[in-house]
Amino acid sequence: AQSVTQLGSHVSVSEGALVLLRCNYSSSVPPYLFWYVQYPNQGLQLLLKYTSAATLVKGINGFEAEFKKSETSFHLTKPSAHMSDAAEYFCAVIPSGAGSYQLTFGKGTKLSVIP
Amino acid sequence: DTGVSQNPRHKITKRGQNVTFRCDPISEHNRLYWYRQTLGQGPEFLTYFQNEAQLEKSRLLSDRFSAERPKGSFSTLEIQRTEQGDSAMYLCASSTGPGDGNTIYFGEGSWLTVV
Predict the structure, then answer these.
(1) Best residue in B33, B39, B41, B104 to probe A by mutation, most A CBs within 10 Å?
(2) Closest-CA residue of chain B to A32
């Protein structure tokens, strides 16, 4: 079964500092990987996704993530944090293979941005 | 593209009452999903429709829960004889095809509080 581990339930960074949110997956076969963002009392918005093309994936709002098979990781980064980045971030996986549809989410990492 | 629409956004109900949530997916999306999210956790898969057919139900979906998608358009999620443990946000999502190559779009969610 697929599983996702997000290290750190809370991360605080200063405005302008590097954002690094960690995600590791467990799967014998590399799955498809996603990062979603959730603002308070709202649904989920897709930031970016990895579907076996380029290992460095660029998403919206200046975020990017790198798929590292050897480390079974898909960490999310942004060079310079902005106040508007404060939200909860979820890493998710879908098993590779045609017709896969069930997302398995991590527990989320809440990002705080300090002025 | 008006996005995935869910209503009501908030519902407070007494234990033992029935509640129903509605989801209108993005038009032309034939795949529809329901997820549940409790505080401090990532969303968990509940059920999946392809057109009007309910193809999978999670073991989280007890007999008190029923989901329908008549005519492959909107969907409803009904919870009978609500319990306090049902308090959560219920998220609906939709996509044009399987999640391996197609973005799954989420709605704003419906918050349920059982008192």
Answers:
(1) B104
(2) B100
Backbone angles phi, psi at B104, to 5 degrees: -95, 120
Q: State how far residue A94 is from chain B, nearest Cα, in angstroms.
A: 7
Q: What residues of B are in contact with residue A93 (Cβ under 8 Å)?
A: none
Check CB contact under 8 Å for A36 and B4. no
pLDDT, tens digit, 9 for 90 and up, residues A18-43: 999 999 999 777 788 999 999 988 88
In which band, very low, low, confident or very high, does the pLDDT at A101 lie, cut at 50, 70 and 90? Answer: confident
Cβ pair B99:A90 closer than 8 A: no
Asked if B19 and B79 count as a contact pair (C-beta separation under 8 A), the reply is yes
User: How far is Cα of residue B24 from the mean position of the Cα atoms in its chain?
Assistant: 10
Residues 6+ apart with CB under 8 A from A56: A64, A65, A66, A67
Tell me: cis bond preceding A40? Omega within 30 of 0 counts: no
What confidence tens digit (pLDDT) does each residue in B23-36 have? Answer: 999 998 999 999 99
- Which of B2, B7, B100 to mutate against chain A (most A CBs within 10 Å)? B100
- Three-state DSSP at A7 gives coil
Concatenated DSSP letters of A58-106: E-GGG-EEEEEGGGTEEEEEESS--GGG-EEEEEEEE-SSTT----EE-
